[in-house]
Design brief:
InterPro entries: AAA+_ATPase (IPR003593), ABC_transporter-like_ATP-bd (IPR003439), ABC_transporter_ATP-binding (IPR050763), P-loop_NTPase (IPR027417). There is one protein chain. It contains 9 helices and 15 strands. By secondary structure, the chain is an alpha/beta fold. The protein folds into 2 domains: about 1-215, Rossmann fold (3-Layer(aba) Sandwich), CATH 3.40.50.300; about 220-275, YebC, transcriptional regulation domain (Alpha-Beta Plaits, 2-Layer Sandwich), CATH 3.30.70.980. The protein has a 6-stranded mixed beta sheet with strand order 5-6-7-3-8-9, sandwiched between helices. Helix 2 (about 90-95) packs across helix 3 (about 105-110). It is elongated and about 75 Å long. The structure holds adenosine-5'-triphosphate.
């Protein structure tokens, strides 16, 4: 059942088209991630979906305009959310809990976002990541049916980010519908059921991470270093080339890597190194947003095109 339906939603600020006929729907209990470059329109879409900005087209949340939905049912974390600086993390959550009839216990929320040890610290003295954790918790005080989080994990360290993913996955498993925006492709890939890619105000791709990677991620690459003959690529049926003393083969299935080595050794070549890379959501993102200014190298470093490694 679709909980959230946007149909041909557009929004313009003066001459700037922030949203251009965006249509999407989010199912009950689904985790939907919206990704896209800076200025693509993500925050504007979050605002449109939660009824905090005027748009053309239609948005329905739980079958009604978002402005009409009972506040108890929605948890919203805006991108720029600044609680009072001179309240502690605990006091902030107590404050927001006071707005609802049956709030979640503050101690449970603090623990869920990993803030139990810093609960008595003033917001102004928290680190960036601790502030963001507190803000995420404040969107959960009413145990909402629909959670909309605009860049929830920005500034949070990798372990904390994973802790929040688990928390969100747990909520979704219990039926909470979750819509997040993120600049972390790993987050979108690991966490979400479906990903929408927004560019210049329009949805340019929308599907499960796996399907997007299959459709747009490009080839897996096997890099082989060693003492290799000029004609080495001809030994294989895979598309391949030799450059800088390294053989690159495209789309070698992982279970065939051994036979590549065997073939090379049978031809009396030695293999010193093997690296296999699989496309991921970041490749999809770069492909579809044409931001291919960087490219992966065999050892996983990022090389800047036209620049120094
Ligand atoms: N209140 C506003 N007044 C004028 N223009 C705005 C306003 N809000 C957003 N815009 C413009 O609309 C476009 C989309 O902005 P938006 O904040 O939705 O992008 P975003 O994808 O959330 O970006 P980011 O990843 O940087 O947060 C941008 O060109 C932005 O300059």
């Amino acid at each position: 059942m679709a909980v959230l339906v946007a149909d041909e939603v557009s929004r313009q600020y003066g001459d700037t088209v922030a949203l251009d006929d965006v249509s999407l729907s989010v199912e009950s209990g689904e985790i939907f991630a919206l990704v896209g470059p800076n200025g693509a329109g993500k925050t504007t879409l979050v605002r449109a979906l939660t009824g905090t900005t005027e748009v053309t087209g239609s948005v329905e949340l739980f079958g009604e305009p978002p402005q009409s939905v009972e506040g108890e049912r929605i948890g919203l974390l805006p991108q720029n959310f600044d609680p009072p600086e001179r309240l502690t993390a605990r006091e902030i959550l107590d404050y927001y809990s006071g707005l609802y009839e049956d709030p979640e216990p503050t101690d449970d929320l603090l623990e869920a976002v990993g803030m139990d040890d810093d609960a008595e610290t003033y917001y102004e003295n928290l680190s960036g990541g601790q502030k963001r954790r507190t803000c995420v918790a404040s969107a959960l005080v009413n145990d909402p049916d629909m959670l909309v989080l605009d860049e929830p994990t920005t500034g949070i360290d990798p372990a904390g980010r994973r802790q929040l993913w688990q928390l969100l996955e747990g909520l979704a498993a219990e039926g909470t519908t979750i819509f997040i925006t993120t600049h972390y492709m790993e987050e979108a890939e690991e966490l979400s059921d479906r990903v929408g890619l927004l560019a210049d105000g329009a949805i340019v791709a929308l599907d499960s991470p796996e399907t997007l990677i299959e459709s747009y991620g490009g080839d897996s690459l096997l890099y082989v270093g060693g003492e290799l003959e000029e004609s080495v690529a001809e030994l294989f049926d895979y598309e391949g080339s030799l450059g800088n003393g390294q053989l690159t083969l495209r789309n070698v299935p992982p279970n065939e890597i051994g036979s590549v080595v065997t073939t090379l050794e049978a031809s009396e070549m030695t293999v010193d190194s093997l690296t296999w890379t699989d496309p991921d959501l970041e490749d999809v993102y770069l492909e579809l947003t044409e931001q291919s200014v960087t490219q992966r190298t065999a050892d996983g470093r990022i090389a800047v095109a036209g620049g120094e490694e």
